[in-house]
Sequence to fold (92 residues):
Amino acid sequence: MNERNVVSWNIMINGYLKGGNPGCGLKLFREMVKMGLRGSDTTMVGVLTACGHSARLKEGRSAHGFLIKMYLRPTIIIDTALIDMYMVAEKI
Fold:
């Protein structure tokens, strides 16, 4: 079965992040959104981490806005990822 779902996207996005290529993870996220998939907390943590670690503050702010539009409930994990993204991106 060749099914693309949020879980498989999360694995790929976070795999690129762990492999030291956050830009490819962000590219996959943009593709996922174009396909109409909403994502999950795990997706957004990976995206925010990728933005911070690649110093893409503008894209991180866009991801933050996307997070708000999706109405994902605030969680400690997402809030921590947001803080980390803003702190790391500002340092670089």
Q: What stands out?
A: The radius of gyration is 12 Å. The helical segments are 6-18, 22-34, 41-53, 57-70, 76-91.
